[in-house]
Amino acid sequence: MSFLTLNLRPTIELTDEQFEQICRSNPELRLERTASSELVIMSPTGSETGGRNSSITGQLWAWNHQSRLGKTFDSSTGFKLPNGATRSPDAAWILLKRWETLTAAQRRGFAPICPDFVVELRSSGDDKGTIQAKMHEYIANGLRLGWLIDPEARLVEIYRADQPVETIDNPVTLSGEAVLPGFVLDLTEIFAG
After folding, report:
1. How confident is the model at residue 15 (pLDDT cuts 50, 70, 90)?
2. What are the φ and ψ backbone dihedral angles of 48, each rounded to 5 degrees?
3. Number of neighbouring beta carbons within 10 Å of residue 25
4. Of the candidate ranges 46-50, 72-76, 120-124, 184-188, the one whose mean pLDDT is the lowest
5. What is the rounded CA–CA span in Å between residue 40 and residue 33?
6. Which residues pair with 164 in a beta bridge?
7. Residue 112 pLDDT > 70, yes or no?
8. H helices present in 94-147, as ranges
9. What percent of the chain has pLDDT over 70?
10. Is residue 57 classed as helix, strand or coil in its secondary structure?
11. How large is the average pLDDT for residues 5-34?
12. Are 98 and 179 in contact (CB under 8 A)?
């Protein structure tokens, strides 16, 4: 996946409503907005990455369907973070009691909340530093647990609040720890391609 970043300032200052309208008017584009109001245009993922994303989201959904502890979200979901950025992780989860604090209108748009858990899946064309910066941004905005999965390198970086990043080489599974009690992600399909 490749990215194109447009700096609209100082010419255009997009409001939240205008950004949401641009997204609705261009559903074929994956758009994010940085905290400094840059518009990030991402190309669609390739088939392998799409299959990997599906595996991750499916496993997370199945666990949550049994536990009923929160809400799961796929890669098309945008979240308005406290710093003003609107980000769209590859998979996300929010604790149910936090989700229920949002109004119906907030839930319909880009929910103004940072997920408790996110997964970012690195594609072959992704700049690792850019994705790592996104993971640090999530942490700075309230994320409790995040995984940056790099299938080609067979590496996972684990991001936790108030802790250094942990790198695991070639894991078979990942534990959801206390954030997602009982959730274990099987990486077999994800690392196989």
Report:
1. confident
2. -60, -45
3. 8
4. 46-50
5. 6
6. none
7. yes
8. 96-99, 104-108, 128-140
9. 92
10. helix
11. 76
12. no
State the Cα–Cα distance between residues 35 and 39, nearest whole angstrom. 10
- Total residues belonging to the chain: 193
The C-alpha angle with vertex 22 and arms to 102 and 94, in degrees rounded to 5, equals 25
Range 106-116 average pLDDT: 96
The gap from C-alpha 75 to its chain's centroid, in whole angstroms, comes to: 7
CB 162 within 8 A of CB 146: no
C-beta contacts of 102-109 below 8 A and 24+ residues apart: 109/16, 109/20, 109/80
On the question of pLDDT at 1 being above 70, the answer is no
Do residues 74 and 64 lie in contact, with contact meaning Cβ atoms separated by under 8 Å? no
Name the maximum alpha-carbon separation found in the chain: 49
Q: How high does pLDDT run on average in the chain?
A: 90
Return the structure tokens found at 137.
Answer: 């941004």
Residues 6+ positions from 94 with CB-CB distance below 8 Å: 70, 71, 73, 111, 113, 115, 116
Q: What burial letters (b/e) apply to 174-191, b meaning 16+ CB within 10 Å?
A: bebeebbeebebebeebb
Q: Which residues neighbour 87 within 8 Å (Cβ) at sequence distance 6 or greater?
A: 32, 78, 79, 81, 134, 137, 138
